[in-house]
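Hello,

Our lab assistant flagged a job as stuck in the queue for most of the afternoon. It eventually completed. Since we weren't sure the result was trustworthy after the delay, we are filing this so someone can double-check. Below is the sequence as submitted and the structure that was eventually returned. Let us know if re-running is recommended.
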Amino acid sequence: MKNPKLYYSISEVSELTSLEQYVLRYWETEFVQLKPKKNRAGNRIYKESDISIINGIKHLLYNDKYTIAGARQYLKSNKGIDLAPEPQLDQNTTAASNLILKDVLKGIDDLLSELKETKKR
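-- returned structure --
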């Protein structure tokens, strides 16, 4: 998310998670972990933590192929911990990251050398 806000409307969360609003409302009835607050007008207001829970539930249902009951049981037994899936890094990603880090370190070393030279003058 580019610019995190304190609260998001259901339409914003629907767009961020690529889920229909009715799905979000239904999940509220199925998962005790998902309880967004409501504003004075009665509209749902979601926090970042709610969106994280939604993404975790979405991952369990759509990626791991859990049923609603299975996902509910999983969340109950794991106390909702670690809902977000771990990013999977393949060897190419790791190798590319290492090259980038080496370039950054070389740049830092070059800057330090320049600073030392400037200091000597």
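-- support follow-up --
The delay was a queue issue, not a problem with the job. The result is valid. The first strand starts at residue 37 and ends at 38. The chain has five helices and two strands.
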